[in-house]
Every structure is written in C-alpha cells, then in structure tokens.
Amino acid sequence: MGAKKSKEVSTELTAKQIALIKANTKYTDQEIREWHTGFIRDCPNGKLDKKKFAEVYKQFYPDGKVDKYCKHAFDTFDTNHDGSITFEEFLLAIAATSQGNVDERLSVAFDLYDISNDGQIDQKELATMISAMYDLVGEQDRKGDKDPKKRAADIITKLDLTGDKKLTKAEFISGCKTDPVIHQMLAPNA
Q: Which residue windows are transmembrane per the record (predicted)?
C-alpha cells in the first residue's frame, strides 16, 4: 500500500495503436508493423530512453557529436514528458519530419528550436540549436558568418516581422519558406 508503481508500456501492437498511427500518418498497416518490430528489437521494454536515442542518431552521424542535438530532439519527441519515447511518439515524430508537408515539417523544426516551449524562438535558443547542428555534422568553422550567435542574430533580423527580436511559429515558417538559404540551414528536410 502506498507504493508507487511505474507505468508499464505494452510491447504488443494493438489495433487501436495502428488506427491512431494510420489516422495521423501515411503509413500502411504493414509499414507500421515493420517499424514496430524494429522498435521493439532495439527497445525491448517498449521505451526509447535518451541514451538509446543518441545511439541511434550516432549511426546516422558517426563523425558528429550528437549529444546536444539529441537532448533537444528527445525533449521535443517525448510528448508526454515522461523521460522516454514510446513507439507511438517515435513513429509520429518520424512521420512528422519525413511525411508531412512543408508547413508541418517546419512546424516540427520550430518546436525543436523552441527550447523554452514558450511559442517563440529567441536569439539564444537559435544559437544553441545552430551550435548543436554544427556539432551533429562535425562543422568546426564557427568564425565570421558561421559564428552561431551571429548567424542566429542575422536570421532573427531577417525573419522577425514584429521587431521583438523573437520568432513566432508563423514568422519562422513563412521566413523559411521564402528564404531558401535559411530554409536549407534550419530545416533541410522540410
């Protein structure tokens, strides 16, 4: 009595989960089952923790430093903020970053950069994410125009329509869509 039970996550894929994922993605039943098989193979307890998340990213960026980027990405994808990513959170995040239209993918990128979760990106948040992206891809040159703080200031100046030195989601999406250089740097897959 009074003992706190940790919430168990089922490793079985239910019809309800498949229906939820299908309603929010373009995946077929078969693709969902294949993703699930791989997820459970890598995460037998049905949860992806920060350490395993970073290991997965390291496979895609073997020469990069993934830690900073993965911390922010993990926090974005852990939608219920319980310190782990379930299969549904995982596949919905994958779909949002790969299947969505440009606005949807830019929206995910915005959420990733909005570290404080206040609905705005300020220069410090943007510089932090630019540094994390540099680490991820192994970019060493951070002088002059490549300085993360300068680059963040330039981007904010260019995209900030209200003059408050912060970007709303609408400003971010609109700016990325109209400036191909910024779009490529901040949301290359969108």
A: none
Q: Where in the chain is the domain with CATH 1.10.238.10?
A: 15-65+79-98, 102-186
The fold adopted by the segment(s) 15-65+79-98 is Recoverin; domain 1 (1.10.238)
Angstrom distance (rounded) from CA 114 to CA 69: 13
Long-range contacts at 143-151 (CB < 8 A, ≥ 24 apart): 149/123, 151/127, 151/185
What the block records as the tokens of 60 is 């895609």
Task: Provide the token pair at 153.
Answer: 């200031």
Structure confidence by residue, pLDDT tens digits, 45-73:
999 999 998 888 888 778 878 888 888 88
Centre a 10 Å sphere on the Cβ of residue 80 and count the other Cβ atoms it contains: 11
Question: How is domain 102-186 classified at the architecture level of CATH?
Answer: Orthogonal Bundle (1.10)
| Model pTM above 0.85 | no
